[in-house]
Each structure stands twice: as structure tokens, then as C-alpha cells.
Amino acid sequence: MLKIYHAPVTRAFRVIWVCEELGLPYEVIPVDFSAAYRASPEWRALNPVGKVPVMIDGDMTMFESCAMMQYVLDRYGDGKLQPGLASPDYPLYLQWCWFAEATFSRPLGEMTNHRREFNPPLDEVIAEMQRRARLSMQALDQALSDRPYLLGNEMSAADISNCYVMRGYRRSVSDELPTHAQAFFDRMTALPSYQRTVAADRAAVIS
């Protein structure tokens, strides 16, 4: 069984959601998200940069959430939630999966890190990161203007990954989403697999 080391709201959310959508068994192991624990030799042995999450599958350990998601799909997905290599949609699938983390998530993460490390945070830095995040949201809204999901009529893991980042956008930039993006967000968050993922996320608390 997959072991997913997770703290609430962190990036394993997308991996858990993929497992829920596939009906794949997994175990969530709550992680102490304190800076002290994440700097400890115990945690650094699993994730050398001290971030969360980590996933273990047998003798395999990995610590990048998008890579985890792709690993789960390739090994256990049986062709679900991603187009085949020969599909004309496969390049777009890769594009939107990478977009979620490399482009859309980056300014949101910079805002979080800036607020954590600097007191008070520099307003102009926060404003620039919000501008970049809004550009990403506009790109998603445009892509969704004529289709329910990023690749068309079929949901993929690219939708899951970007919807996860939308949650962060709503916390850090604005609750108000553009029209098509809002419809997409509502569609994704109405899924039973999403509701189960939210429950698993909330349960990953160190008491």
C-alpha cells in the first residue's frame, strides 16, 4: 500500500485525490509541519530539502508531488486520468501538469515564503506575485472557455493538479475566479473523490 506523508493543505493533496479517483488504497501518515521537525535528521532522511510530502511504495521513496502523481498513474492507473502516449492530447496533458506546479503554483509559494521569512513582508513583492498568479488564472480561464476540462470532455490528472493550486489562489489572491475557471472549480470540487480527499486532508493533523 502507498504511504503518503502529508500535512494539511500541502501538496500531497493532489496525490491523495488521484488515489481517491482511482479507488487505490493508500495510507496517510501525518507529518509534524513545524520548522524544527522538518529540519530534523529524521525528516531530512526522507526529504533532503525538508518539504512535505513524501511517498513510499515498497522500497521506493520520492518527494515531489507531481512526480508522485505521475508515478501512481503510470504504475496503477490502468490508463485512467491521462491520455495515452499516442494521443494528440498527451502533449497538452504534460503542458497543463507542468503548468500547475512550474507556473501557477510558483507565485503563490513565493507569497507564502515571503510572508513566513520577512516581517513585515514587502508589499511590492506580494503585489508582483499576485499579478503573476492572476495571469496564470487568466490562462486557465481562457483554456476552459469552450470545454469542461483542460483536455476537453474527459477529466485528467492535469485538472486535479490545477484545481489543487486554485485552492491556494483563493486563499492568497482572491475568492473570485473568472467565469469559466469558477465553473471548472465548482465542477471539480463537487466530485465525491474531492470530498473524500478533503476529509483525508483534515484528518492529517498531529494532535
Which helices and strands occur, and which strands form pairs?
Elements: E1 2-6, H1 12-22, E2 26-30, H2 35-38, H3 41-44, E3 54-57, E4 60-62, H4 65-76, H5 90-117, H6 123-143, H7 157-172, H8 179-189, H9 192-203
Parallel strand pairs: 1-2
Antiparallel strand pairs: 1-3, 3-4
Main traits of this protein?
207 residues; alpha+beta; Glutaredoxin; Glutathione S-transferase Yfyf (Class Pi), Chain A, domain 2; four-stranded mixed β-sheet; 4 strands
Shape: globular
- Kindly report how far apart the N and C termini lie: 24 Å
Shape-level CATH architecture of the largest domain: Up-down Bundle
Task: Tell me the series of helices and strands, N- to C-terminal.
Answer: EHEHHEEHHHHHH
* Number of strand segments: 4
pLDDT under 50 segments (min length 5)?
none
The average pLDDT score comes to: 95
How does the major sheet shape up? 4 strands, mixed
CATH topology (fold) name of the largest domain: Glutathione S-transferase Yfyf (Class Pi), Chain A, domain 2
Strand order, main sheet: write it out.
2-1-3-4
CATH class of the largest domain: Mainly Alpha
How many whole angstroms does the radius of gyration measure? Answer: 17 Å
The total tally of domains equals 2
Helix count, DSSP H or I runs of 4 or more residues: 9
Please state roughly what percent of the residues sit in beta strands, choosing from under 5%, 5-15%, 15-25%, 25-35%, 35-45% or over 45%: 5-15%
> Which structural class do the helices and strands define?
alpha+beta
Portion of residues in helices?
A: 55-70%
